């Protein structure tokens, strides 16, 4: 029984993420955030980076929704045989 537990601990330890890996991942996330690029070398907490990342993803999703709605409106008012419709179709493909 004891050997099974120690094996289990070893395998779970090897699959754990290290603090160094977390710091590296948070740094990579921070590099992806537009507002973080302007802060450059300013030290920001991991929780702040995660919060900013979530907010940024929400903003991007809202932008996708808005653009999808605008595209649907445009397609609804466009003669699908026109040159404009052909351009729109080519951009979507």
TrEMBL record:
Family: Belongs to the bHLH protein family.
Naturally occurring in which organism (per UniProt): Rhynchospora tenuis
Lineage top rank: taxon: Eukaryota
Biological processes annotated in GO: regulation of DNA-templated transcription; regulation of growth
Pfam families found in the cross-reference section: bHLH_ILI
Matches recorded under SUPFAM superfamilies: HLH, helix-loop-helix DNA-binding domain (SSF47459)
Single GO MF annotation: protein dimerization activity
Domain spans labelled BHLH: 6-60
Residue runs in coiled coils: 50-77
Alphabetical UniProt keywords: Coiled coil, Growth regulation, Transcription, Transcription regulation
Listed name of the protein: BHLH domain-containing protein
InterPro entries: bHLH_dom, HLH_DNA-bd_sf, PRE
């Amino acid at each position: 029984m004891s050997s099974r537990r120690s094996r289990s601990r070893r395998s779970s330890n090897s699959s754990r993420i290290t603090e160094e890996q977390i710091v590296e991942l948070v740094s990579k996330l921070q590099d992806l955030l537009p507002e973080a690029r302007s802060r450059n070398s300013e030290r920001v907490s991991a929780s702040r980076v995660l919060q900013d990342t979530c907010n940024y993803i929400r903003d991007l999703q809202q932008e996708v929704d808005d653009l999808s709605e605008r595209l649907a409106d445009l397609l609804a008012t466009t003669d699908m045989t026109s040159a404009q419709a052909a351009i729109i179709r080519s951009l979507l493909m």
